[in-house]
Design a protein that fits this description.
The chain is mainly α. The protein contains 19 helices and no strands.
């Protein structure tokens, strides 16, 4: 008798598996998603965020993934390989700099940065800033002016650099190219320091727009160039070195008490602001609509389910989950 009930239970199990797979089939999946998303949103409207998860749970998760989770070597290696592919991609040569970064954004950013007290007060004393600006002046004076001398001469610090450069060229022996470049670079550095001090001078004692105009002029000179033109300033090896430096910085930074404090404060603020929201209200707050959920379910669901049905993994999963129920003493007793 027991064997008969067991056989009947197993037939019911197989019927259940077939039923579920049919519900997930291409003919019915869209209707299932449509109905279940509505049910999920209805339930989400009754669940409040801080009643479902606590801020301490979220803090623990944030700390795990941001500060303590072991980062395998394959991750930075993958990042480097992706960067190399992107570096050499044809899109770098098919798109202009100005198409990606609009002039209005450059103008707004330059204007804001030059307003910051940190920039005005610390810029002239920064070795990095002096190095960058001197390189910039040197490039304009020796390269860009060849193509557009009139524009280059309007950049603060370049007009004097051009004139002084001409005098230096006249005093250097023919063929002494290395000496010429060194002297021009020294002059560019002095010009950079002067330009940075002019930019940081108190309001009313400086030409307010000189540095801003210089930045915008330089931008306009290069806006029509391909993005790939930056390869002459940043080699693939340089890019890989920057990734390594950034990765090593992150490994050190992620262990600091400073980052831990910021993470905790961010979670606290989020719960202070949204803890009383229902999950449905949170979805709306962050712009996730019902149509988005349905669209993504229909995008990824059918192909994944088709593979799982074809290779038998879906049936195996359902059998593992449901077989203990159908063969339980309670169900066998019902089948007696």
């Amino acid at each position: 008798m027991t064997d008969g009930r067991r056989a009947k239970a197993l037939r019911l199990l197989e019927a259940q598996i077939e039923f579920v797979q049919a519900q997930l089939g291409p003919d019915r999946f869209a209707l299932l998603v449509d109905a279940e998303v509505d049910h999920a949103l209805s339930a989400a409207g009754e669940l409040v965020l801080d009643g479902v998860v606590s801020r301490e749970q979220i803090k623990a998760t944030a700390r795990k993934y941001a500060t303590t989770m072991q980062i395998q070597g394959s991750i930075p290696e993958l990042a480097g390989e992706i960067a190399a592919r992107v570096y050499g991609h044809r899109a770098q040569d098919e798109n202009r700099i100005g198409d990606v970064l609009g002039t209005e954004h450059v103008e707004a950013l330059a204007g804001k940065l030059l307003e910051l007290p940190l920039v005005r007060e610390r810029l002239p004393e920064s070795p990095l800033a002096v190095s960058v600006v001197s390189w910039w002046l040197y490039r304009i004076a020796t390269d860009v002016m060849v193509h557009n001398r009139e524009v280059a001469a309007r950049v603060p610090g370049v007009s004097s650099l051009l004139a002084a450069g001409g005098r230096i060229v006249g005093t250097v022996a023919p063929g002494a190219r290395v000496d010429l470049e060194l002297r021009l670079r020294e002059l560019a550095e002095r010009s950079a320091r002067l330009l940075l001090h002019r930019a940081s001078a108190p309001s009313g004692t400086r030409d307010e727009s000189s540095v801003y105009d210089a930045v915008i002029d330089l931008w306009r000179q290069h806006a029509d160039e391909a993005i790939g033109s930056f390869r002459q300033y940043l080699s693939q090896d340089d890019l890989e070195d920057l990734l390594v430096i950034g990765y090593e910085f992150w490994l050190a930074f992620r262990g600091t008490a400073y980052l831990h404090a910021l993470l905790d404060e961010g979670v606290d603020f989020f719960f202070d602001k949204y803890g009383h929201f229902t999950l449905r209200e949170l979805l709306v707050e962050f712009g996730i609509e019902r149509e988005d959920m349905v669209e993504e379910a229909l995008r990824f669901g059918p192909p994944v389910i088709a593979v799982l049905v074809e290779n038998g993994m879906l049936a195996a999963f359902l059998r593992r989950r449901l077989e203990p129920f159908f063969l339980s003493d309670e169900v066998l007793a019902l089948l007696e």
